[in-house]
Please model this.
Amino acid sequence: MKQHFLILCLMALVPLSASSQNQIVSYAYDQAGNRISRKIVDLSVNPNPTHVKKSDDPAPIEDQLGERKIAIYPNPTKGMLGVEITGGEAKDAIRIQLFNADGKQLQNKKAESGITPLNLTAYPTGWYILRVQAGEKMTEFKIVKQ
Model:
């Protein structure tokens, strides 16, 4: 009797796993990094949806800081975050600061032009504020850690 029940349970799970292979979840975010929608996409109907970003091709969040362009990626992140700084004059020292939701500073480091990695793996899941400051100019980003 127990064997029949187990077989029936396993048979009931097979269609679920097969159908979930043809579905993905697509999320949309606003400029502040807040999730504004969640959509289940059936890949059997359209195997290459245009509104779904591939996970291996993250779109950076970008902002201008004077003459500099700041790009943050990937966001949301599972741990490693890249801060890419291009353009601008080298005379202003660039600082990158990471704050938790309570406003406590977690990291403070000097950055140069190019990519500066930030490791968030030791921090819990949640949201953080990343501040990039060059001289008197400053911009902030909301970072989501999964």
User: Anything to note?
Assistant: The first strand starts at residue 23 and ends at 29. Residues 2-20 form the longest helix (19 residues). The chain is about 15% helix and 50% strand.
